[in-house]
Amino acid sequence: DTGVSQDPRHKITKRGQNVTFRCDPISEHNRLYWYRQTLGQGPEFLTYFQNEAQLEKSRLLSDRFSAERPKGSFSTLEIQRTEQGDSAMYLCASSPGGASGFFGPGTRLTVL
Amino acid sequence: AQKVTQAQTEISVVEKEDVTLDCVYETRDTTYYLFWYKQPPSGELVFLIRRNSFDEQNEISGRYSWNFQKSTSSFNFTITASQVVDSAVYFCALSEPSPNSGYALNFGKGTSLLVTP
Fold first, then answer.
1. Distance between CA A57 and CA B101 in Å, rounded?
2. Edge to edge, what strands does the sheet with A5-7 contain?
3. For B65, which of A7, A70, B37, B97 is 20 to 30 Å away at the CA?
4. Cβ–Cβ of B50/A99 closer than 8 Å?
């Protein structure tokens, strides 16, 4: 499968715990995006990487959130001290440049 | 302010009916891109189409067609002879290229389409 992959697909955690999600973009795609989708809403932009550089962070990305993309390949999104409001689908997308949007299957986070 | 407006929250049609999903966008850029995605109950976003701001030609792909009108800032999506498998949430999205956010997408709130037999 050469599409965008995300792991895990589902995560249930207790409030206050830390969680980390991984996104593997399509090979050689230098642009990578993270989005968050809450119930009944469209996806909202969180952050953008061009190669290993994180260029933009949405105001939705509080201090408890951190994202990395070491070596410009896969990316991780970590949420520290999770809150119930963090429950959402976290989506990753990659592109080779230009306007395109190849999305992964998402990680559904439930915070109890 | 919402940059992409999908005024129809839910639409219900009977199989074989035609249905149009509306999308109105707002931008000051001259170069931008418009997208439609389908999100079935499984949750995965399925890419349907991308249009750039310089190409106003309507497009048809099987039972799907898109009407892009810059004069009204609309990018509407029509499904002809709808089928039960078309039931999903459909999202319209706008991309305004920038050095810092690349081609990040700004999504509407989606239209939930239910096609009944």
1. 8
2. A5-7, A19-24, A75-79, A65-68
3. B97
4. yes
Tokens of B1: 């302010």
The span from the CA of A42 to the CA of A37, in Å, is 6
The H or E element that residue B66 is part of is: strand B64-69
pLDDT in tens, B39-87: 999 889 999 999 999 988 888 999 999 999 999 999 999 999 999 999 9
* Contact status of A50 with chain B (Cβ, < 8 Å): yes
Residue of B nearest to A30 (CA): B102
Identity at B101, one-letter amino acid code: S
Here the tokens at position A70 are 């070491």
E strand segments, chain A:
5-7, 10-13, 19-24, 31-37, 44-50, 53-57, 65-68, 75-79, 88-95, 102-103, 107-111
Characterize B61-86 residue by residue with b for buried, 16 or more Cβ atoms within 10 angstroms of its Cβ, and e for exposed. eeebbbbbeeeebbbbbbbeebeeeb
